[in-house]
Amino acid sequence: MDKLQRLHLRGFKSIQQIDLELTPLNILIGANGAGKSNLISFFKMLNEMMAEPGRLQQYIGESGSAQSLLYFGPKTTPQIEAQLDFEVENGSDSYRMRLFHAAGDTLIFEEETLSFIPTGRTEPRTDDLGAGHRETLLNKVAQHNEENYTARALRYLLQRCRVYHFHDTSSTAGVRQSCYSGDHRWLMPDASNLAALLLRFQEEYEHTVYRQIISTIRLIAPFFEDFVLVPNKANYVILNWKEKGSDRVFGPHQFSDGTLRAICLITLLLQPRDELPKLIVVDEPELGLHPYALNVIADLFDQASMDTQILISTQSRSFLDNFDPEAIIIVDRAEQASQFKRLSTADLDAWLTRIDQ
Known about the structure:
Blueprint: E1 3-12, E2 15-21, E3 25-30, H1 36-50, H2 56-62, H3 66-69, H4 73-76, E4 79-88, E5 91-102, E6 106-118, E7 125-128, H5 138-144, H6 149-159, E8 161-164, E9 179-180, H7 194-204, H8 209-220, E10 224-228, E11 236-237, E12 240-243, E13 249-250, H9 257-270, E14 279-283, H10 291-304, E15 309-314, H11 317-320, E16 328-334, E17 337-341, H12 345-356
Parallel strand pairs: 3-15, 3-16, 8-14, 14-15
Antiparallel strand pairs: 1-2, 1-4, 4-5, 5-6, 6-7, 9-11, 10-12, 12-13, 16-17
């Protein structure tokens, strides 16, 4: 399985410098303000950067400009450096970038390089994509140079490191609205195309994936019978559903916030194995979930980590109890910077006891 083996990150928000080795399952735990969400934000920036066309500049603007992204601002930290090392079937692929502070309080690429080290060798083959550009050139190189296998592989891997936020379940949230039924390639970050994706699963995997999703939803919502996914004349579909013992059809606005968030997570984690992202990043999946539902979701994360990588940020001790200590990364704020560490079982117990006090 291709996986993100190591992340080197310097100068991003509260992260002065980290060198983090990633395993199949990674659970971040720490106090408010320690920096958990800042690491999640880096992957969000990566998502925007790797979109086509790239949206890095849009992300920078929406985040409060470059000064909000640089560790203690551009006078202290003039650039963000990152390197992502992927373990692949025939060696190791690496993507490296340096984003430098530029006029207009934005960031431009000072460096963007790709490298591949074949198994059994130590010297990398490196491609330098240049400097001075405002959006990544990786997508362009991968599209227009079919013989550049490193660029194509890295584009595939980076585009499949996906961040999901299911926090917004308000009455105007996308997941509660209708969506185009053909928008079903993969789950959107806010699950706004959930109905379309479930409709495809119902049509293509009715007795496997779809049935497993339905049965798992019933574990946390025993009243739930099934979805009623019928596109209208404009080919839009909404997340209608039925209750057990009733023919009445309910709409998505009649799901509680916690139930709807659980449905989003269940669908994400139980989709076909070959459709899973390469890295699933979720910030605080425990929000609004009943303790029993939280245990069900934790088990799904554990199962999914056998087929893909998982990175979760949480503040829930009860959620944390579902995972082995080896999966847990503690996040502390020390010397004005976020620190990320894996601890022994004894040290982890002592650390958790200390933050509970």
